[in-house]
Write a structure and sequence with these properties.
14 helices; two-stranded antiparallel ribbon; two-stranded antiparallel sheet
């Protein structure tokens, strides 16, 4: 039976390995070929591989290393079993040679790995500390830049004016760092102002006066920016619905009186509704999804049978 191509190649490699000279030439040619392919960029490198491919390649390398190490240990063990036990050394020189065996080498390698691992951990800790210090220095640099913008000469107590204006949140943070007496006075002013606004809103009699109070909170956008509208409703008693109705306009809101000047009476509204719901005026939709929900009340849609202009003519 003729041999296959794989069998022929396997026997050829065995003959090469059997001859030391040919095997050395083969390894030399393979090394030259590998260097040439690497220079041409045909072999993947650590920079061109993805993270997943790098993990896979390193896993293969570890498995190969373990296999070679296990085979070497098995070969060494078989060799020791086949050889007779060594004779007892009789001189100091032979005793020194015997003591410099694999046990000392193994202990030295173990200590080396331990020291290297400790060094890597120390490097990671130092890198984390350096990163933390870098962020801290960057934060201080930005704070100094803001302070420099606030005062041109770098002195906080200088009386010169500048274009820099701290935000309300920044002012609140600075106030919290102030002495307790200053914070207490600021809180007293805050609650006094809220009390006066609440009393003023409750004393308003006409809708125009109430609209004027609402207009105060409509003028600015900081309340909405810092999400304080619910606090306005809670402490002052202002309706958020009336504020949001004209949040983009500085005009007065429509008063309660003007809203109902042109409205129909309940009797007229019921009569008009009863007229349009008659079967000879409108028809009910038959589909299940043709409904309208208002105030959690679902009703079926109805369409007019004729146009109002046509029916009037």
């Amino acid at each position: 039976m003729p041999l296959s191509g794989a069998e022929k190649m396997r026997r050829y490699r065995q003959r090469i390995k059997a001859d030391a000279t040919k095997h050395a030439e083969y390894l030399k040619d393979e090394k030259t070929r590998w260097k040439k392919r690497k220079e041409e960029g045909k072999l993947p490198t650590a920079n061109t591989r993805s993270a997943r491919e790098t993990r896979y390649v390193r896993k293969v390398w570890r498995e190969r290393y373990r296999t070679r190490k296990r085979e070497a240990e098995e070969a060494e063990k078989a060799k020791q079993e086949s050889e007779p036990p060594p004779t007892t050394p009789t001189s100091c020189c032979s005793l020194k040679i015997l003591n410099s065996g694999s046990r000392q080498k193994m202990l030295g390698r173990r200590k080396q790995r331990k020291d290297r691992a400790a060094a890597y951990r120390r490097i990671k800790e130092l890198e984390a500390k350096v990163e933390a210090e870098r962020k801290k220095s960057q934060r201080y640099r930005k704070a100094f830049g803001r302070l420099k913008m606030a005062c041109a000469d770098g002195n906080r107590e200088c009386g010169e004016t500048s274009s820099y204006k701290p935000t309300p949140r920044k002012q609140a943070k600075n106030k919290l760092r102030s002495p307790i007496k200053s914070v207490r006075k600021q809180l007293l002013f805050h609650y006094s102002l809220l009390h006066d606004l609440r009393q003023r809103l409750q004393s308003c009699q006409t809708p125009a006066e109430k609209q004027l109070v609402h207009k105060i909170f409509v003028a600015g956008n900081l309340m909405k920016k810092y999400r304080l509208m619910t606090q306005v409703k809670k402490h002052v008693g202002v309706s958020l619905r009336r504020i949001n109705a004209k949040s983009n306009s500085t005009a007065f809101l429509p008063t309660a009186k003007s809203r109902y000047n042109n409205s129909l009476s309940q009797e007229s509204f019921a009569a008009v509704r009863q007229f349009f719901e008659q079967d000879d005026v409108s028809r009910v939709c038959a589909r299940k999804k043709e409904t309208v929900t208002k105030s959690k009340i679902k009703k079926q849609k109805k369409y007019l049978l004729e146009d109002l202009l046509v029916s009037v003519d």
